[in-house]
Amino acid sequence: MKNNNIIGGRFKSLVFMLTGMIAINGWTASPDGPEDGGMPMRPLGRTGYSVALFSLGGQATIERRGQDEKAHEIINRALDLGVNYIDTAPSYGGGISETYIGRVMRDRRDEVFLATKSHDYSYAGTMRLIEQSLQRLQTDRIDLYQHHNVGSLRQLERITAEDGALRAFLELQERGVVKHIGITSHSPRVLLRALELDVYDCMLITLNPAGASMQDRGYLEAFMEKAREREVGVIAMKVVGRGTLVGGRASMKELLRYALSFPVATAVIGISEVWQVDDNVGIASDFEPLPTAAKRELESRFR
User: Which candidate in 85, 92, 121, 200 is catalytic?
Assistant: First the structure.
């Protein structure tokens, strides 16, 4: 990887200083724990925030045009049942997902740790995208801003170049527009390299027994261990392979238990029907880790 000022000691010191400022200003205060019988909570890495085991993803119904009423019902139901983390992106439905979420955030912003993304790896492109996201989400701040779908080490180099998106992320963090920064990938190898930069607070990764959409699965264990050491919050995605894994070979309960049995803070899941919110909250509320043997048996079904 190229050596440049963005990933040098000067910027690492800046990030450390900014993190301290944010904590002092109360940005990282944790919410109250759940009611008795509610979903268990886990710390989101070093952010100082605790999240429920099941979190709401901005895909499925929430990214489909013409689903306003249903999408709003899903989002409100999730918040009513204790979900306190919502993940979206400007590319989901071409901005539809952020728009639906923003209509709910207008009245319930303080109930949610709100995450969105930039799929543009340049400085200028990211600065354009953040303005659009803030407008659609009807907020003046993003709790977690993430590089979207970084699939290769070459793309990671592009992000960390002098005119790359990381520079924009750090500036936005300094201005208080963004609280924490992160990166998403289907490759634990890419995320393992990103951990070496020592600037990211959270990382979003594919995690299911089929390895669906995951590249470089052999790096998964090393990534999880390094993320734990660095106190980086790990968030699971593609838990059900966008719905393709639920059915004959595995149940929703098995798939969610599988993902949550790894050292992750939460699992982000897109919802198609309102009743699915209740089901996932119920599974998360009764969560018990899968023994290693059970995880391996589940993986063997998809071979």
Answer: 92
The answer to the question of residue 136 being in a domain is: yes
* Predicted pLDDT of residue 214: 86
Distance in angstroms (rounded) separating the CA atoms of residues 117 and 292: 33
Q: What pLDDT is recorded for position 33?
A: 39
Note whether residue 30 is domain-resident. Answer: no
Known catalytic membership, residue 92: yes
CATH of the domain at 232: 3.20.20.100
| Angle, vertex CA 270, rays to CA 149 and CA 180, nearest 5 | 50
Question: Sign (positive/negative) of CA torsion 150, 116, 178, 118?
Answer: positive
Q: Is the pLDDT of residue 18 over 90?
A: no
Q: What is the pTM of this model?
A: 0.87
Residue of 242, 235, 165, 243 lying closest to 197 (CA atoms): 165
